[in-house]
Amino acid sequence: MPPRRVVLRGALAVGCGLLLPAALFGCDSKKGENATGAAPAPTDSPATSPDAAAPAEPVKASQASVQYQAQPKGDQKCDGCLHFIAESNTCKVVEGQISPDGWCILWVPKA
Fold first, then answer.
1. Is residue 44 domain-resident?
2. Residue 92 domain-assigned?
3. Structurally, how many domains does the chain consist of?
4. Distances from the Cα of 108 to the Cαs of 50, 59, 60, 72, in angstroms?
5. What string of H, E and C letters represents the secondary structure of 11-48?
6. In a domain, 16, yes or no
7. Where is the secretion signal located (predicted)?
8. Which of 77, 87, 68, 66 is nearest to 109 (CA)?
């Protein structure tokens, strides 16, 4: 009977000999082409197109989802927040009219 090391080396060689071609078969050196060699079909989905235009208006969070309140929380008020737009009493990230004395969980101090 052959020594254990010889048997294990043989088993390893046979296993690698069977698995390596199967693993390499899945690797395709031609990225962007399918198995027939043809280029992939273009998609009409605007979400996946790199040239797709961004939405004109950014999506803002609702006042309820950010726990907006018309009263300040301590010294934290909307007019001292980085996101507050004083000219229009609006916020960059929260929808609707915002009170300068309001507060929400997204409050960030102005730098």
1. no
2. yes
3. 1
4. 32, 19, 16, 13
5. HHHHHHHHHHHHHHHHCCCCCCCCCCCCCCCCCCCCCC
6. no
7. 1-26
8. 77
Question: pTM for this structure?
Answer: 0.49
Which domain covers residue 99, as residue numbers?
59-110
So what's the pLDDT on residue 87? 96
pLDDT (tens digit, 9 = 90+) per residue, 24-64?
Answer: 666 655 555 555 555 556 555 555 555 556 667 779 999 99
| pLDDT surpassing 90 at residue 11 | no
What type of residue sits at position 25?
F
Model confidence over 64-102: pLDDT tens digits?
999 999 999 999 999 999 999 999 999 999 999 999 999
Length of the chain: 111
CATH label of the domain that carries residue 63: 4.10.490.10
